[in-house]
Amino acid sequence: MAGEILIVDDERDIRSLISMTLEDEGYQSKTAANADEARNILLSRPPVLAILDIWMRDSDMDGLQLLEWTKGVYPDLPVLMISGHGTIETAVQAIRQGAYDFIEKPFKENRLVLMVERALEAARLTQENAELRTRISEDMAPELIGNSQAMRVTRQAISKIAPTASRVIINGPGGSGKELAARVIHDQSQRRDGRFVVANCARLAPERVDAELFGSESMQASRRIVGLFEQAHEGTLYFDEICDLPLETQGKIVRAVTEQRFRRVGGNAEVVVDVRVISASSRDLVTEIQAGRLREDLYYRLGVVSLNVAPVSERREDIPLMAKHFVKKIADRLGVAPIKLSDEVLAAMQGYEWPGNVRQIHNTIESMLILAPPDRREPVGLSLLPADIQNIPRGSSRSGLDEMFSLPLRNAREDFERVYLATQLRRFDGNISRMANFVGMERSALHRKLKALNIDNMEAAEHAVVAHTIDSEKGATS
């Protein structure tokens, strides 16, 4: 199993007996003869369980005092107390101070092993419950939504990256799903049972950033703060917007990442951890290095593997899937009935640029769920969407009609078809088969029509829609 069990007893024979018994059962162990040795071991790296003798010779603390100190440093660490001079009062006091259980000497080996198994299982269940509550509260399942080419490439890259121990840098615009991609990497890795810890670099207070990352300790007050690196031990530490960290802290991270060891603020002992680091940024990292905001050595240590997350504008065909996914997810969270999204709403959403990316889609769906009428049997219309997403320029509707009515039927029909088909081509991200199915045309006939209207590629479609919007706005102001 991962981690070690610390055995603290002033009798060498007892330490050896317990150590050999546990190692026969597949556990790893470390031993200490007194409280001073035990504290040094505890501060260097937390064990998975501690076994403390109550009465210890040549020690500045007895077992109960060491228990109190240990719980002040590691509140969740399971502790078993042992003693050859135990009383009911001593056992009760130990359990009140946080010990899992109390065992009298001499003890049978199978009873010791049973108590160790129970203590570790109780600690594991406590941690799993805490992590489950955290995941539910974060409302973010590790799932990438979409079947576009860009999303398929991302999933394929993650399937290769996740099983390795390599450090990863994820790049992509704000709100595109970089943290979600990092969570999927963690969830598909061998560290999935460990914690996924987020360091939001922009929100770390400059005067406290080192303590928050590496922790701090005060021997006089027997007080210790667990930093994010230690919290992510045997798991994944995710740096969101890595360029926002102070340069001095970036230098300390270089050593912590490469050597997997560091000192807490105010501490002397080196802490050893096993952490996979995934970093993310919405900026161009080469530009940040040239501007002096990102250390080059940190970039090369963090960026063993690079992963790009495409903006929503480059994976428009995923928008209906994302929208429907968020409808169900957010409706469950808000405790409201879900809504049905009409084809015109989905078309408008696919035609919008989404500068805020996935996060903006999430917020838009949440707003629609809140503002939708109580009767949700019929699909909702465009009126629930913000005006800019409806893709209707302000004041352009009447002028556009006036201009169309001033044209001969053939010209008006041609203008309408050009804008309509250009918009649909953008909506389906150039996928002619899906577009033909939606507009109700044979694929070959649609190809001929697009060629005749000079919009047989995405660049021409973008130009046609932009030109129509500009002409409409000019008409509205004239």
From TrEMBL:
Report domain Response regulatory positions: 4-120
Q: What is its EC number?
A: 2.7.3.-
Domain (Sigma-54 factor interaction) ranges: 144-370
Question: Which residues are annotated with the PTM 4-aspartylphosphate?
Answer: 53
Q: Which GO terms describe its biological process?
A: phosphorelay signal transduction system; regulation of DNA-templated transcription
The record's section on Pfam families has: AAA_lid_14, HTH_8, Response_reg, Sigma54_activat
This protein is called: Response regulator containing CheY-like receiver
